Amino acid sequence: MSPVVTVIVLLAATVAYAGLCALQYRHAGVRGLVLVWLAASAVWGYLKLGWWCGRPLTCDVGSPAGVITYYETHYLPVFVAMSLLWLGVGAIVVWRRERRAAARASLARTVGAATAATVGAWLVVSLLAYEVLQLPN
User: For position 11, what pLDDT does the model report?
Assistant: First the structure.
C-alpha cells in the first residue's frame, strides 16, 4: 500500500473513531465512551502488531499457528498501551465538548476537534515511543 493511501485510511479510521465516540457518548454516556475507547485501543494495538510484524525481518518467521510468540507477549502490550494513550486523548476531547449542553448542537465540530487531537496525540506518542523503546518505524 502506498504511503498516501495509508495516510488516507488512517485519517478515515480516526474520523470514524471520533464520530463513534461522539455518538456513543450521546447515546450511552461515559460508559459507552469508555467501552469504545478500550475496544478501539485493543483492536488498534493488535492491528499495529500485525502491520509491524508483517514487514520483512521484523518478527519470527515460521511459528506454528496458534502459538503465542515472543512478539505477541512483549510488543502487543506496548502497542495497546500506545493506542490507549492517543485514542484516550480523542475520547477526552469528546467527553469535554459533549458534556457541555451548548456544544452538543454541533456533532461535526466535536468530531473535528477529536480527530485533530487524536492525530496530534498519535504523532507525539509514536515519536516518544519509538525514541524511548527504539522500535523500528
Answer: 93
- How distant is the alpha carbon of residue 119 from its chain centre? 9
Report the C-alpha gap between 77 and 133 in whole angstroms: 13
CA dist 124 and 103 (Å) reads 27
Q: And the C-alpha cell for 61?
A: 518467521
103 and 97 Cβ atoms separated by less than 8 Å: yes
Q: How many CB atoms lie within 10 A of CB 115?
A: 19
pLDDT digits (tens, 9 = 90+) for 34-52: 999 999 999 999 988 888 7
Distance from C-alpha of 65 to C-alpha of 100, rounded to nearest angstrom: 49
